Amino acid sequence: MTRTVLITGASKGIGLACAQRFAALGDNVVVTYNTTPPPDGFASIRCDVTSVADVDAAFAFAEERFGPVQVLVSNAGLTNDGLLLRMNEQAFTSVIDANLTAAYRVAKRATQGMLRARAGRMIFMSSVVGLLGSAGQANYAASKAGLVGLARSLARELGSRSITVNVVAPGPVATDMTAALGEKRLAELTDAVPLGRMATPQEIAGAVVFLASDDAAYITGAVIPVDGGLGMGH
């Protein structure tokens, strides 16, 4: 069955890999972006996930083109790193808004159609940092940890309507963002990973696609680590 899939922040990296995997399955995929459009071939719309109006417009676009959203992947996010004593309040709250409050916004909008259909899948993109913490990333780690509480609360609220809500927690992933860190920092990251390497975006997308599949129909409120063993035990 062809589904309508909406993925936020999907112009590159993990989001784009997810879009490509769902499209390969034959699903109708709508991707949102903030600054750089995705490659040709995807239905796309600019969406600032910190704006309720933009979120509503993105869902309206998907619904008009393909029908109600059946799979939501809340992937959009940002970082603004800094040690606590140097982190001003705007740097903290802006990351919470883009990473955590935005997930609330898109989940609330997706729930409308999913409740009517009595079915749906939501997947939130967290991070191993949300479970382990990371010096200089108090804002980012807090936002990613918050997604776990949000997802598990929604899993309890919506489970009776056959709507599942799960979290994927990647470790270091080979993307444009990590490539900019430099060889020394990349070596430090991979040295900490038991598998000794970073993940590819496609490996993260594999977990997302699984959670949206029929095989995962009895999984909800779960946190799926795709981190090479970095966060094991958490």
Automatic annotation (TrEMBL):
GO terms for molecular function: oxidoreductase activity, acting on the CH-OH group of donors, NAD or NADP as acceptor. Pfam families: adh_short_C2 (PF13561). Residues 3-176 form the Ketoreductase domain. Transmembrane segments: none annotated. Coiled coil: none annotated. Keywords: Oxidoreductase. Belongs to the short-chain dehydrogenases/reductases (SDR) family. This is Unannotated protein.
